[in-house]
C-alpha cells in the first residue's frame, strides 16, 4: 500500500506539497542502553543524584524503567563500571586526545566515558560500542561536530587497550576529596589498598537464623569466621535460592553483621533498634533472643522492614517516627544506633556515593550522628549498652565522634572489643577497642572473592 495515500491532506494549503521530512535513521540496537547510561551518569556526576533512586523500578528514571530486564542489567553494569573507574577512564580518554575537551562538553564526556568503560572493562563487542558512541554523538546537536573525534579516540582505545590500562593503573580510582580523607585517616599505603578494593563488586553475604555450616553447604557458599555465608558468583536472583521463601536467611554484608553481635548474650533483654530499616540488624537482634523495639522514620522503609520481618517470621514492636521524639516509658537494656551516614564504606556496591556525596555531607552527617548518639545514650538503663555503628570510612563519623562524646560525658565508658573473640578480624579492632573494617579486609580465598563493607562500631556503657 502506498503510504502517501493514507496521509491526511495538508490542513492549510492543500495544493502546497508537504515539506520533505528529514530522513531519520532508526536507532541501532543497543542505542537506548548507551544513551540511558550516559544520561544517568550525567545525573549522578553532575547533578549528584543517587543511582538507587534513579534505578528504582517504581519511582525511578523513565528511560531506564521502560528497558527490558537484560537491557536494564547492561545499563546498570555500564553505569557502575563507569563510576567505579571514572578517574582512570578520564585519564585514558585524556591520553588519547591532543586538545582537551571544552569544559562545557559534559554530554560528550559522558558518551566517551560510557564507551571507554565498556571497551576496557566489560565483555561487549568493541566495534558495536564505538558505532553506538558515534551514533550518540551524531544524534546530539551539541556533539555532532565531535563525532569524528569520538570515532578516532575510541578506535584507538580498542587498539591500545592493554597499554592504556597499564598507563592509567597508577591513577587513583577515587575522587580527589575522598583520597585526601583516606590518606589522612589510613596513610598512603592503606588508602591506596582501600581505593583499589572498591573496584571489585561486592560478593553477596547472607546471615542465617541458625546452622550456618549446614546452609553454607546447601548453598555452595563459604562460611566466614563470623558465621556469615559468602556466596560465589551466580546467575539470577537470590530470591530464587533455597531458604529464601522459608525465611531462613537474609542478605547482609559480613561487616554489617558485626554491630548486632557486639551486645553479647541478648536472651530475654529489651533492645531498641533506633534506625531500623530495612531491618538486617533488627532480625539479628530478634534471632539472638532479644525483645526488640524497632524505630524508623521513613514510612517507605518501614514497609520494607515489615515485609522483611514477615518473610523471616519474626516480630518486633514497630515505632514509626523520628528517634528524637521517641520517649519510651521504660529504658532499655541495650540500644543499637546504626545511624544514617555518608555510606562511603559501601562503594563496592554503590560506586555513585563518591560522586554524589561531598565533604560537606560528611560534616553534616557527623553532626547529626553525634546528636543521635547523645539521645540514644539517654534511652538505656544504668549499666546498659549502646552500640553505635555506621558504614562510613571517615573518622569524623566514627572514631572522632565517639572520642568527643566520651570526653564530655563521664558517665559513659567504652567497652573495648576483645580481638580474641573475632578470629580472622583481629586487625579490624582499633587500639581503642572499636571495630573499623574496610573494603581492603578479608582476602579472597577458595575461589570466593574478598572484601567487606567499611564499617565503624563502638560499644558504650552508661554507668
Ligand atoms: C543505615 S540505615 C539503617 C540500616 C538498618 N539498621 C539495617 O541494618 O538494615 C539508617 C536508617 O535510619 C533511618 N533514620 C534516619 N533518621 C532517622 C531518625 N531521625 N529517626 C529514625 N530513623 C531515622 C533512615 O530512614 C534509615 O532507614
Automatic annotation (TrEMBL):
Region (Disordered): 1-27
InterPro entries found in the cross-reference section: MeTrfase_RsmB-F_NOP2_cat (IPR049560), MeTrfase_RsmB-F_NOP2_dom (IPR001678), NusB-like_sf (IPR035926), NusB_RsmB_TIM44 (IPR006027), RCMT (IPR023267), SAM-dependent_MTases_sf (IPR029063)
PANTHER family: NOL1_NOP2_SUN FAMILY PROTEIN _ ANTITERMINATION NUSB DOMAIN-CONTAINING PROTEIN (PTHR22807:SF61), NOP2 YEAST -RELATED NOL1/NOP2/FMU SUN DOMAIN-CONTAINING (PTHR22807)
Classification via PROSITE patterns: SAM_MT_RSMB_NOP
Keyword S-adenosyl-L-methionine: yes
Family: Belongs to the class I-like SAM-binding methyltransferase superfamily. RsmB/NOP family.
Protein name: MFS transporter
Active site positions: 391
GO BP field: regulation of DNA-templated transcription; RNA methylation
Coiled coil: 295-322
Domain of life (superkingdom): Bacteria
Domain SAM-dependent MTase RsmB/NOP-type per the UniProt entry, residue ranges: 166-463
Keywords noted in UniProt: Coiled coil, Methyltransferase, RNA-binding, S-adenosyl-L-methionine, Transferase
Positions annotated to bind S-adenosyl-L-methionine: 275-281, 296, 322, 338
Single Gene Ontology MF annotation: RNA binding
Amino acid at each position: 500500500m502506498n503510504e502517501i495515500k493514507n496521509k491526511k491532506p495538508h490542513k492549510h494549503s492543500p495544493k502546497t506539497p508537504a515539506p520533505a521530512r528529514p530522513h531519520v535513521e532508526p536507532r541501532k540496537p543497543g542505542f537506548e542502553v548507551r544513551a540511558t547510561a550516559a544520561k544517568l551518569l550525567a545525573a549522578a556526576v553532575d547533578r549528584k543524584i543517587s543511582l538507587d533512586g534513579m534505578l528504582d523500578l517504581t519511582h525511578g528514571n523513565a528511560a531506564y524503567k521502560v528497558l527490558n530486564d537484560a537491557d536494564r542489567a547492561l545499563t546498570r553494569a555500564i553505569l557502575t563500571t563507569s563510576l567505579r573507574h571514572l578517574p582512570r577512564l578520564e585519564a585514558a580518554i585524556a591520553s588519547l586526545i591532543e586538545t582537551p575537551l571544552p569544559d562545557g562538553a559534559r554530554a560528550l564526556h559522558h558518551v566517551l566515558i560510557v564507551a571507554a568503560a565498556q571497551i576496557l572493562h566489560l565483555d561487549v563487542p568493541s566495534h558495536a560500542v564505538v558505532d553506538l558512541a558515534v551514533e550518540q554523538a551524531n544524534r546530539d546537536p551539541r556533539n555532532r561536530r565531535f563525532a569524528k573525534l569520538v570515532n578516532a579516540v575510541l578506535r584507538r582505545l580498542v587498539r591500545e587497550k592493554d597499554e592504556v590500562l597499564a598507563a592509567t593503573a597508577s591513577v587513583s580510582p577515587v575522587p580527589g576529596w575522598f583520597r585526601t580523607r583516606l590518606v589522612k585517616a589510613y596513610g598512603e599505603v592503606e588508602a591506596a589498598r582501600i581505593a583499589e578494593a572498591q573496584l571489585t563488586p561486592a560478593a553477596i553475604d547472607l546471615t542465617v537464623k541458625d546452622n550456618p555450616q549446614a546452609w553454607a553447604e546447601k548453598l555452595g557458599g563459604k562460611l566466614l569466621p563470623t558465621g556469615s555465608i559468602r556466596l560465589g558468583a551466580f546467575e539470577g536472583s537470590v530470591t530464587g535460592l533455597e531458604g529464601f521463601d522459608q525465611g531462613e536467611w537474609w542478605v547482609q554484608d559480613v561487616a554489617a553483621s558485626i554491630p548486632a553481635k557486639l551486645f553479647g548474650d541478648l536472651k530475654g533483654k529489651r533492645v531498641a533498634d533506633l534506625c531500623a530499616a530495612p531491618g538486617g540488624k533488627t532480625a539479628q537482634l530478634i534471632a539472638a533472643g532479644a525483645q526488640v523495639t524497632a524505630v524508623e522514620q521513613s514510612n517507605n522503609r518501614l514497609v520494607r522492614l515489615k515485609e522483611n520481618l514477615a518473610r523471616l517470621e519474626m516480630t518486633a514492636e514497630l515505632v514509626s517516627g523520628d528517634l528524637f521524639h521517641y520517649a519510651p516509658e521504660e529504658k532499655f537494656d541495650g540500644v543499637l544506633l546504626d545511624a544514617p551516614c555518608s555510606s562511603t564504606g559501601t562503594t563496592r556496591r554503590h560506586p555513585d556515593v563518591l560522586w554524589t556525596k561531598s565533604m560537606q555531607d560528611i560534616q553534616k552527617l557527623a553532626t547529626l550522628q553525634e546528636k543521635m548518639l547523645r539521645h540514644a545514650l539517654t534511652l538505656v538503663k544504668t549499666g546498659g549498652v549502646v552500640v553505635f555503628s555506621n558504614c562510613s570510612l571517615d573518622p569524623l563519623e566514627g572514631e572522632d565522634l565517639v572520642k568527643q562524646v566520651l570526653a564530655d560525658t563521664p558517665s559513659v565508658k567504652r567497652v573495648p572489643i576483645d580481638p580474641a573473640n573475632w578470629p580472622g578480624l583481629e586487625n579490624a579492632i582499633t587500639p581503642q577497642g572499636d571495630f573499623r573494617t574496610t573494603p581492603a579486609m578479608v582476602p579472597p580465598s577458595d575461589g570466593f572473592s574478598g572484601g567487606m563493607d567499611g564499617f565503624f562500631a563502638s560499644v558504650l556503657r552508661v554507668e
